[in-house]
Write a structure and sequence with these properties.
The structure is a homodimer of 185-residue chains.
Chain A (H helix, E strand, L loop, with lengths): L3 E8 L3 E4 L15 H6 L1 E7 H8 L9 H11 L2 E5 L10 E3 L3 H10 L4 E6 L1 H9 L5 E7 L1 E2 L3 E3 L8 E10 L5 E7 L6
Parallel strand pairs in A: 1-6, 1-7, 3-4, 3-6, 4-5
Antiparallel strand pairs in A: 2-9, 7-11, 10-11
Chain lengths: 185, 185
C-alpha cells in the first residue's frame, strides 16, 4: 500500500517558516540526495495555496541543472490538490470532500509512495486525521524563535517510532518516524 | 575554560514539559550513559524553583542502584542557584545579581564543565544573554502539541553548528550544537 510521507524542513524549535514567512534558513545540500526521495514517490498532495505557489513552478535560467532535474521530476508526478473548491486543471485532480476516504482510495492504488507537500493547514488536517504514515523531518541547525509551527492545534499526544536518521554536512539532521500504533502503547 | 552545557529532554515539537507539567514522556535508557555526562561536569546551575524541587532530591528505597549512583554524582557537584533573593544554604551558592559577570568568573575557574539544569526561566535568561556554550538536546519521539517551549521569547534568531548526534534504542536522538559565532556567519 502507498504511504503518505510528510517530508519537510523544520527549525530546531519546530517552525516550518519564520514569523514573516522566511524560509531563507532552509538548506538543500548535495549530500541530501533529494532526488532519491523524489524517485521514491509517484504522487504529491498539495493544499490549494501551496499548489498555486509551487504546483507548476518553473525554475528560471539561473537555476542549476540539478535543481532543474528535481523540478522536472516533481512535475512528472500525479498531483492532487485539497481545496474547498474544485477547479478545472489538466495537471491536477482536486479533492474537495471526504478527505479520509479519498486518501484511503489513493493509497490502495499500486505504485510508489505519496509526498504530503503542505502547506500547514493541510498538514494539520492530515496529522489530526491520522493520515500520515511517515514523518521525515529535516531538523535545521537554527532556532527561529517564532513563526509557523509544524505541529499546531494537535488534538492529542502523538507517539512516534524512530525509523532512521541521516546527518548532513550542513548540520541538518533528518529524523524519520512512523506513528506508533495505539495497540502498541 | 569551563563550558556551560544545556542538557535537556525535549519533545519533537520543542516542549520541555507538557501543558500540565507532564514529564512522563521522558525516557532514561541505559544506553544513554548519563553517568558519562555527569562525570564531565563539576558544577550545576539551577533556577530557584528547580533547586528547591531537585537540588537536594533523595531517591527513595525503590530507586535502582544506577539511579542512586546518579543522584550521588549530582549531589557531589558544586551548585549555584540563580534567584532574585539570596538564602543561607551550605550546599549551594546563591547568585542574585550580575549574572553574566558571575557566570564569566565561574567559567574562568579550572575544572570540568557546567550543567545548566534549568528551569525554563533560567534557560531563557542564559540563551538571550548568549551564556550557553553547548546545547545538548535529547529529542524524544513524541509530539506533545502544547506545553512549555524550550525556546521562548527569543530575542533573535540563533544559528547553531551541529557537533554530534547520538541515537538511542528508545528512539531518542541526542543533538549537540554550539552557537555559531557571529564572525563566522
Amino acid at each position: 500500500m502507498k504511504k503518505v510521507v510528510l517530508n519537510l524542513a523544520v527549525s530546531l524549535d519546530g517552525f516550518i517558516e519564520g514569523a514573516n514567512g522566511e524560509v531563507d534558513w532552509c538548506i538543500m545540500d548535495d549530500d541530501m540526495n533529494f532526488e532519491t526521495f523524489i524517485e521514491s514517490i509517484d504522487t504529491i498532495f498539495y493544499g490549494r495555496v501551496s499548489y498555486d505557489a509551487w504546483g507548476n513552478f518553473e525554475p528560471d535560467e539561473n537555476t542549476s541543472p540539478a535543481e532543474r532535474i528535481m523540478w522536472q521530476g516533481i512535475h512528472a508526478k500525479n498531483k492532487f490538490v485539497f481545496s474547498s473548491q474544485s477547479r478545472q486543471d489538466e495537471k491536477a485532480t482536486y479533492i474537495t470532500t471526504d478527505i479520509a476516504k479519498k486518501v484511503s482510495e489513493i493509497k490502495q492504488q499500486k505504485g510508489k509512495d505519496i509526498w504530503l507537500y503542505g502547506g500547514a493547514n493541510l498538514i494539520k488536517t492530515f496529522i489530526n486525521s491520522g493520515l500520515i504514515d511517515v514523518y521525515k523531518l529535516s531538523v535545521h541547525p537554527v532556532v527561529l524563535g517564532s513563526g509557523k509551527p509544524l505541529f499546531e492545534d494537535l488534538k492529542q499526544r502523538l507517539n512516534l517510532r524512530l525509523l532512521n536518521t541521516r546527518i548532513f554536512r550542513s548540520g541538518v539532521v533528518e529524523l524519520t518516524y512512523e506513528p506508533e500504533q495505539i495497540t502498541n502503547r
